[in-house]
Amino acid sequence: MRLSRYFLPVLKENPAEAQIVSHRYMLRAGMIKQASAGIYSWLPLGFKVLRKLENIVHEEQVRAGHIPMLMPTLQSADLWRESGRYDDYGEEMLRITDRHKRDMLYGPTNEELITDIFRSHVGSYKDLPLTLYHIQWKFRDEIRPRFGVMRGREFLMKDGYNFDLTKEDALHAYNRHLVSYLRTYERMGLQAIPMRADGGPIGGDYTHEFLVLAETGESEVFYDSEITDLKFGDRQIDYNNVEQCQAVLKEFTSRYARTDETHDEALFNQIPEDRRRVARGIEVGQIFYFGTKYSEPMGATVVNDKGERVPVHMGSHGIGVSRLIGAIIEASHDDKGIIWPEGVTPFHCGIVNLKQGDEEADAACEAIYDSLTALGLEPLYDDRNERAGGKFASMDLIGLPWRITVGPRGLKNGVVELTSRRTGESEELPPEQAIAKIAAIYGLAQG
Ligand code: 5CA
Question: Which end of the chain is more exposed for a tag (fewer CB within 10 A), N or C?
Fold first, then answer.
């Protein structure tokens, strides 16, 4: 993409309404624009990151054997009356009446809708196990939407629902989700710690929240510092292997890590004092096993191998896709702007032309642009007629992890400059070597 033809409305000043760094940088980098309280338009740069996160979530869900689909945002109130949650959910639910005076709502979550789909089409234990998921906008009329996309009213969520014959099978689905979430967050460059949590309006006794540690997080968390040493890494997991998934759950949940809702001071005090941590975290996901809470009242049953009709065991599993962008920025930035992890960066590399209009510099930039593009990478070429200082400031703000700087002086010596956004370190290289290095960083072999 050439910056002169892109839409990147960068702000020079700090917006007064933004209290935390991720909100500030998302506004300043032209990623989002508030449409009304807690509701945002996703401008091209923000939309690009959102899509990248969605792709990672999809890939990891499909890898775990879960099936993508799409359910609507608007739902009929009748389904929620069946489960008993229509009245329970309270003022967070946005209720709408259509022209025929039918009660509708903008879905805050989808347990009822998916249970209805299931009961309409599945009747035998032979069709289980089944896990369906979608990535769709949700609406929760939060009393205090704040911190930009972190606590929005409209937000993008991946929500998945498992249907199993027995509690044991459903707990395997729970473990499978935990494993797939660990992989998902690590691919995004994040450490998200599973913590014992509270079921809230979704329900159930088995539930873990995934928290990214950050001072600006809304949850207070208590944990054993040893837990932060755990890494999922690139281990190979067979998602059908019950013992393997269980072992990962055990490894990542056996140390003390709880949110304030379930915190137990006496248990916490059993951890050696130097390992006790009280901190804040951003909740980027939650998994639940709630048994037959929805299947029983809504009649989602299957016939088991003895010919008996039994309610299915269910769980639901959410990832806060739009919130994750805020969490990534909270975890990865400096005083100049965002620093995107390579896995989620909106463009792989920036190209800064120090002297736009100089024949040689222009030609070198074009050649680098074409080579990177031919490799399947997406560079962002700052081809505007601007001072170098302004170009650097914009690049630093939008946070692309790598920058190639091209100027007449370097070109005389046959080199360009390759700079890491994270470390600030630069090296001078011939253009082909800079390209080869970027290709290697993104795991591409050059042909
Ligand atoms: N049905 C279940 C799981 S599918 C569910 O709704 N879980 S949840 O309530 O925990 O939401 C899932 C994730 O959505 C949360 O972990 C959080 O990351 C994100 N989320 C929840 N509320 C908001 C909000 N107001 N703004 C942004 N993200 C949110």
Answer: C
What ligand 1 atom has the least distance to the C-alpha of 282? 18
Which pLDDT band, with edges at 50, 70 and 90, does 199 fall under?
Answer: confident
Q: Residue 122 region, left (φ>0) first, then alpha (ψ -120 to 50), else beta? A: beta
d(CA 40, CA 333) in angstroms, rounded, equals 22
Distance CA 266, CA 240 (A): 37
* Confidence band, pLDDT 50/70/90 cuts, at residue 445: low
Which residues neighbour 108 within 8 Å (Cβ) at sequence distance 6 or greater?
89, 92, 93, 94, 138, 139, 140
DSSP 352-368: EETTTT-HHHHHHHHHH
Instruction: Supply 254's token pair.
Output: 């056996």
Buried b (16+ CB within 10 A) or exposed e, 382-417: bbbebeeeebbbbbbbbbbbbbbbbbeebbeeebbb
Report the 10 Å Cβ neighbour count for 282: 28
Token pair in block for residue 274: 């130097």
The first and second tokens of residue 157, run together, are 């969520």
Ligand 1 pocket check for 155: Cβ under 6 Å: yes
Task: Report phi then psi at 60, rounded to 5.
Answer: -75, -30
Domains and CATH numbers, the chain: 3-337 (3.30.930.10), 347-441 (3.40.50.800)
Specify the pTM. 0.96
Cα–Cα distance measured from residue 78 to residue 66, given in angstroms and rounded to the nearest whole number? 28
- Structure confidence by residue, pLDDT tens digits, 68-105: 999 999 999 999 999 999 998 999 999 999 999 999 99
Q: How far apart are CA 169 and CA 162, in angstroms?
A: 10
Report whether residue 151 contacts ligand 1, using a CB cutoff of 6 Å.
yes
Regarding the beta carbon of 198 and ligand 1, being less than 6 Å apart is answered: no
Pair 48, 58: CB distance under 8 Å: no
CA dihedral angle for residue 390, residue 392, residue 397, residue 401, rounded to 10 degrees: 160
316 touches ligand 1 (CB under 6 Å): yes
Cβ of residue 291 lying under 6 Å from some atom of ligand 1: no
Q: How many residues does the chain have?
A: 447
Residues 423 and 441: beta-carbon distance below 8 Å: no
d(CA 196, CA 256): 9
Looking at residue 170, the DSSP 8-state letter turns out to be H
d(CA 296, ligand 1 centre) in Å: 24
